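Fill in residues.
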């Protein structure tokens, strides 16, 4: 008699001196719509469409959760950046969030100040924004909400596909980076 183990996790593969996860190939074509796509160059297989739709669908779920916190997307991005790198000027902050299509303004930062989420400090004649204790707590709540959205999607995809998707997205981001500053690098 032979013994075996069973797991729903994808198999671990070793190739060329590295481990890799195997992903299941769908038995049939994955189609987003019920009808066949039209005969044109803009189809559901267009990478820009797929990335945009996935982004906005995830963002839609996050927006629903952010609304319960009375914060908007710009505030989410600002607080997230300041939770990683505090004491930023408005220009430095905007360098990190410009890719979102939103910029922090004096007015939006004043709103965050009035909510006691950020404070404006002057260091060596430069005005810099810092998170307050309330801001740090709000940021941690927001990040927990974003992680909950991610975990829900990852559970639907499966661990292997979620890991493969993250790897491919990182490679895509690295290959298309227009030179954005690295948020996690030391100053």
């Amino acid at each position: 008699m032979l013994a075996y183990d069973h797991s729903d996790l994808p198999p671990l593969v070793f190739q060329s001196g590295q481990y890799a996860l195997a992903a299941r190939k769908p038995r049939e074509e994955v189609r987003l719509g019920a009808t066949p796509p039209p005969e044109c160059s803009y189809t559901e297989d267009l990478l820009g469409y797929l990335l945009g739709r996935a982004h906005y669908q995830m963002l839609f779920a996050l927006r629903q959760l952010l609304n319960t916190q009375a914060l908007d997307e710009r505030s989410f991005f600002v607080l997230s950046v300041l939770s990683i790198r505090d004491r930023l000027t408005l220009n430095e902050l905007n360098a990190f969030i410009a890719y979102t299509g939103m910029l922090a303004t004096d007015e939006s930062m004043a709103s965050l100040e009035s909510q006691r989420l950020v404070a404006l400090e002057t260091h060596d004649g430069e005005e810099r924004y810092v998170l307050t204790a309330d801001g740090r707590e709000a940021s941690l709540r927001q990040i927990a909400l974003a992680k909950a959205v991610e975990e829900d999607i990852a559970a639907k995809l499966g661990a292997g596909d979620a890991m493969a998707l993250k790897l491919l997205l990182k490679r895509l981001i690295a290959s298309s980076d227009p030179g954005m500053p690295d948020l996690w690098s030391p100053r």
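The beta strands are 12-15, 18-21, 118-123, 126-131.
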